[in-house]
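Throughout our pipeline, every protein is held as a single compact record rather than as scattered files. The record that follows is passed on verbatim for readers who wish to inspect the format.
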Amino acid sequence: MHPSVKFCGRGWIYGRGRLIIGEGTWLSPGVVFHTHLEAEIQIGERCDLGPGVEFIVGSHEVGTGERRAGNGTARAIVVGNGCWVGAKSVILGGVTIGDGAIIAAGAVVTRDVPAHTLV
């Protein structure tokens, strides 16, 4: 983690997976990272993460009717440079957010986001 990263209040990092946070990035209170040894989380430079944003790399395959949460999975998350992720957003595993993108408050991001777009 670059020394210019700003943690502005309590937040949490769960798990022992790799978390990379770029220069000049701002983390508002309550940001949560759910890491996994098999899937890193990479946040670019000069990003702004709003209050309560969560990054979740882990999930499950769809199981049988006896137990719908099947085998566990883990997929990386990549956030490009200069992104703004609005309050209470959830970024799920396997997502890449392009440079300069804006994620609106409360969004649940399940697919890649092109650079310089608002979702």
Observations:
- Residues 13 and 64 are 31 Å apart (CA to CA).
- The chain has a mean pLDDT of 96.
- DSSP finds no helices and 16 strands in the chain.
- The two ends are 27 Å apart (CA to CA).
